[in-house]
Amino acid sequence: MKMTYEQAVSYLYEIPKFTKKNGLEHTKELLRRLDIREENFKIIHVAGSNGKGSVCRAISEVLTENQKSNGLFISPHLVRMEERFCINGKMCSVEEFLEAFHCVYEVVERMQKEGLAHPTFFEYLFGMGMWIFQKKRVEYLVLETGLGGRLDCTNVFTHPLLTIITSISLEHTEYLGDTIEKIAAEKAGIIKQGVPVLYDAGNEKADQVISTKASACQAKIYPVHRNSLKFPKFNGKYIDFYFQCDYDVDTKISIPFAAPYQMMNMTLAYQAMRMLEPETGIKKEEILKGIRNTRWQGRMQEVGENIYFDGAHNVAGIHAFLDSVALIRPQNPILLFSMVSDKDYEKAIQLLAERGQWEQVIVTTISDKRGIPAEDIARIFSHFGQQAVVIEDSRKAYEWALKGKKRGQALFCTGSLYFIGELLEITGGKNSD
Q: Which CATH class is domain 301-427?
């Protein structure tokens, strides 16, 4: 049965209602039946709590600018599902999306007739992505994990060129564990025998877990320490800073984000491409140029004059968001906020109330089933001494915020990538660039 685009998307969104988590052997079987062959790709595999999408995007940008064909598999999407499957920096077409959907659908039907489980939502999309990338014959595959790493369905490949682990913080504790060490162990599950691992060494506990796992796998480690990023300067659009380490002295990196947290992410992307230089032939200057040209929706994105969308979605992300606000130094800023219930939202709201200097806070409810009612969000803000205006509908809340915004005043929208996706849909995905 052939479905329209709308029917296919609807089917995919229904999957979580009738599936449960499958093991990696199930994913391998799905890929085997789709005739996906690991040897067709040169894989860069990225895990982490925050920043992995940004790292993946920057690596893809450098490869694309240097005529290296690449597929980028990322999540979540912000507006359209095709965003998860990018070929040379551009999301796949609706036609390619539908062709992949139906190919996987036919395979899944046969699997179910043989008594095998239906793929999960993410597993189905992963199968689609691999089918698209193989058909397009991309050379490089930049692969972002969905949840964790060790048991994530992206962890079926055994010989990537490089594994990367971005910053690690407490997240999805019901699935990944309730300590940094447990979460780091899940992320470190992507480390492979003899494959170098590049990682953010900003957390001592996570660093210990990652280095121990790498040692067991005889994988050479390349930690990037926070104190190796020096002398940042912000000019209103770009942050310029220097990266210093034993094997790369005084490299000036320029990033197009008003976000200090992107310094580490872009350094990881830079260092990854430097490590892969013997493979790609891409020189240092071209790597730096690609990073400077990287654009990434929903990450301290200026969508209009002094209007910023940031997908901070956990406590560590909110800390980083507030650092970005401090860098911009706005006068009497407005905050538009919403969040989902499976995050530590009370702590996130406390940070926003206590660290932010907001002239006005507006709260709304995400349409996702995990969305927290705006009234509940406002109650928590009030508990921490910050009054909030409640507007349940996100479109009306955004329009209210724009109406109240004075000339030169800044509006910051944050709390969830799903929320930012809703806002981008409202604004038509427009960017100030």
A: alpha beta
Asked if residue 431 has pLDDT above 50, the reply is no
b/e burial code for range 322-334 (CB count within 10 A of at least 16 → b): bebbebbebeebb
* Residues in the chain, overall count: 433
Residue 251: partners with Cβ closer than 8 Å, 6 or more residues away: 242, 243, 244, 270, 284, 288
Report the distance separating Cα 395 and Cα 166, nearest Å.
Answer: 33
| Per-residue pLDDT at 34 | 99
Tracing tokens 């200026």 back to the chain, one arrives at 302
User: Distance of CA 46 to CAs 187, 230, 360, 378, Å?
Assistant: 9, 25, 38, 36
Check residues 176 and 97 and name the one with the higher pLDDT. 97
Separation in Å, CA 282 to CA 67, 272, 290: 10, 11, 10
Please state the domain extents for the chain.
5-292, 301-427
CATH of 5-292, one of 3.40.50.11030, 3.30.40.10, 3.40.1190.10, 1.10.287.1490: 3.40.1190.10
- DSSP string of 147-170, one letter each residue: S-STTSGGGG-S--SEEEE-B--S
Per-residue pLDDT of 92-139, as tens digits, reads 999 999 999 999 999 999 999 999 999 999 999 999 999 999 999 999
Question: Can you tell me the distance from the alpha carbon of 401 to that of 336, in angstroms, rounded to the nearest whole number?
Answer: 7
| Span between the terminal Cα atoms of the chain, in Å | 42
Say if residue 58 is exposed, middle or buried (CB neighbours under 10 Å; 0-12, 13-18, 19+): buried
> How much is the pLDDT for 429?
61
Joined tokens for residue 66: 């240097």
One DSSP character per residue, 86-153 reads EETTEEPPHHHHHHHHHHHHHHHHHHHHTTPPPPPHHHHHHHHHHHHHHHTT-SEEEEE-SS-STTSG
Using one digit for the tens of pLDDT, what is the confidence trace for 189-201?
A: 999 999 999 999 9
Rounded distance between C-alpha atoms, residue 318 and residue 78, angstroms? 19
Smallest Cα–Cα separation from 271: which of 183, 165, 147, 138?
165
Q: Band the pLDDT of 432: cuts 50, 70, 90.
A: very low
Ramachandran region, residue 393 (left: φ > 0; alpha: ψ -120 to 50; beta: rest)? beta
